[in-house]
Specification:
Elements: E1 36-38, E2 41-45, E3 50-55, E4 61-66, E5 76-78, E6 81-86, E7 90-95, E8 101-106, E9 111-114, E10 124-127
Antiparallel strand pairs: 1-2, 2-3, 3-4, 5-6, 6-7, 7-8, 9-10
Length: 129
């Protein structure tokens, strides 16, 4: 099987099998979200209800913030702020360096953050059934 991407200069079908784990980090539960990576930090939400900031080179925990529910939605990072949704009906804005809560928005209709780019590059919210 051949896969070819003219922009990929690091990995290909011949060397991907030689990859090794550089680091791993454990949370208190499973992780269903995708990470956000910004300025050497990996931000991830976990089913233990926490949002984590990890050093991208070492995997060391820099900080964690406890929400009131599963932190399943993938976080988004912009302008020094981590935006993270939780199944406690909140979207949290956290200081990217310290993890301190800047603000939260509560919507009892069970809205969570969708960390993707919308038509206009905006964060959108999705309602759960």
């Amino acid at each position: 099987m051949t896969r070819w991407n003219p922009y990929e200069k690091v990995l290909n079908v011949h060397d991907v099998g030689n990859l090794l784990v550089k680091w791993s980090s454990t949370t208190g539960a499973s992780i269903d979200s995708s990470p956000a990576v910004m300025k050497g930090v990996v931000y991830i939400g976990s089913n233990d209800g926490k949002v984590y900031a990890l050093n991208a080179k070492t995997g060391a925990e820099l900080w964690s913030f406890t929400t009131g529910g599963y932190a399943i939605p993938s976080p988004a990072v912009a302008n020094g702020v981590v935006y993270a949704g939780s199944y406690d009906y909140n979207v949290y804005a956290l200081n990217a360096k310290t993890g301190a809560k800047l603000w939260n928005y509560t919507d009892r209709r069970r809205c969570v953050l969708f960390a993707g780019r919308g038509e206009w590059g905006r964060l959108r919210r999705l309602r759960l059934p």
